[in-house]
Specification:
Elements (H helix, E strand, L loop, with lengths): L1 E5 L1 H5 L3 H16 L4 E7 L15 E6 L4 H9 L7 H4 L4 E4 L13 E5 L3 H4 L6 H17 L2 E4 L2 H11 L6 E3 L14 H10 L7 E5 L8 H12 L5 E5 L7 H10 L5 E5 L6 H6 L3 E4 L8 H8 L4 E4 L4 H5 L4 E3 L4 H13 L1 H15 L4 H17 L2
Parallel strand pairs: 1-2, 1-4, 2-3, 4-5, 5-6, 6-7, 8-9, 8-11, 9-10, 11-12, 12-13
Helix pairs in contact: 2-16, 9-10, 9-14, 12-15
């Protein structure tokens, strides 16, 4: 079977979707030596961001221009140039990043929708991007032969917001990479502190792009109430996103400039040590399609505080302390309990490691192969 797959996100995106595509590529390459994968990405150079080494049945083509031109030509201008001009004829075409390009009429298509945050929480995206997604994502969902959702929560949103038929959607969970485990090496733990200027104080960690949906402002307020008079710092790791200035303004307003640290984007190779050095991980997001940092922290043996917002209870199960994302007081109490109650910490650590072990990329890739075959055989 010939499978078409755009991998631009794997090459160009450092965040969650980029990692999602890279991990699926790596695992598919390890599991499947029979099917032929015709992949492509758009980039102005050959520098592949963490692209795994791929075997001979994976054919990679680089389009020598910025990936924004694909969106302009295919989505904004709607030029009907089929993707098969790039991939050649394929039995299945998979778009893993929200939007579907033009295809030949007979080509079955698979579309991955990671979340509908731009609908549920409009403040999560800049107005221009939100307007674009509001048009092209539902259009792509309607055109797709089948849709993958990162969680049952996202599937429910697709049904509720876009009236997508239930049987058109399959939930395909992400996995936790094998490199995410507790780091004991003191040199490695010290190195990550030095690399990101974290100092020697113990810290509460939160990972996510600085944007309203991640709920950093309430987390800062809760940290202020819970640990102002303690030795702990708060580390907000992630790139600067939409309205990130509001987060820094809250830090200044609270007088916590020396206690809230902004290391910026953390390289994937450093994440296990960053998690392992933390006293706890807080993930109070207002909305998620999956919430991979929750499972990564658990895999590293770190107790987790997460919000009850979709779809975090689905992912965390009973292995995290859950709070209402809008309740600063409850968040503050939960932080204190996780920091100062060793029996609770130990129980959640044990549960977390077991919970994270249920989510593996090998399982996800095997299910994806089954879906490829099902779609390709019924075209």
């Amino acid at each position: 079977m010939r499978i078409g797959l755009e991998i631009t996100a794997a090459v160009c995106q450092r965040g969650g979707i980029g990692r999602y595509v890279r991990e699926l590529l790596r695992t598919l390459a390890a599991l499947d030596g029979e099917n032929q994968y015709h992949t492509f990405f758009a980039a102005t150079n050959d520098l592949a961001l963490g692209l795994p080494t791929l075997p001979a049945n994976f054919h990679v083509r680089r389009l020598p221009f910025h990936d924004i031109w694909l969106a302009r030509v295919w989505q904004r201008l709607r030029v009907p140039l089929p993707v098969e001009l790039i991939t050649g004829r394929v039995d299945v075409y998979h778009s893993p990043d929200f939007t579907l390009p033009p295809t030949l009429e007979q080509t079955p298509t698979l579309l991955t929708v990671h979340d509908l945050s731009f609908v549920r929480h409009p403040s999560s995206a800049a107005p221009g991007l939100r307007g674009y997604l509001d048009v092209v994502v539902p259009r792509s969902v309607r055109r797709a032969t089948h849709v993958l959702a990162d969680s049952q929560s996202t599937k429910d949103d697709l049904i509720d917001l876009y009236q997508t038929p239930d049987d058109k959607i399959t939930v395909l969970y992400a996995g936790v990479g094998s490199g995410f485990k507790h780091v004991d090496d003191l040199g490695e733990l010290s190195n990550v502190r030095v690399c990101y200027d974290l100092g020697e104080r113990p810290y509460v960690l939160s990972i996510g792009t600085l944007q309203p949906r991640k709920n950093h402002i309430r987390l800062i307020q809760a940290f202020d109430r819970a640990l102002r008079d303690s030795e702990y710092n708060l580390v907000l790791a992630g790139g600067e996103g939409w309205l990130y200035e509001d987060v820094r303004e809250q830090v200044a307003k609270s007088g916590l400039e020396d206690r809230v640290l902004f290391p910026g984007f953390v390289a994937e190779a450093h994440l296990p040590a960053l998690y392992s050095a933390a006293a706890m991980m807080a993930f109070p997001s207002l909305y998620e399609g999956f919430g991979l940092p929750v499972l990564e922290a658990m895999a590293c043996g770190v107790p987790v505080l997460a919000s009850t917002s979709p779809c975090l209870p689905e992912v965390a199960g009973d292995a995290a302390m859950m709070v209402d994302a809008s309740d600063v007081s409850a968040m503050a109490v939960a932080i204190q309990e996780l920091i100062y109650q060793p029996e609770l910490r130990d129980a959640l650590k044990k549960k977390g490691v077991a919970r994270a072990a249920q989510f593996r990329w090998e399982k996800s890739a095997a299910e994806l192969l089954r879906i490829y075959r099902a779609i390709g055989e019924h075209k």
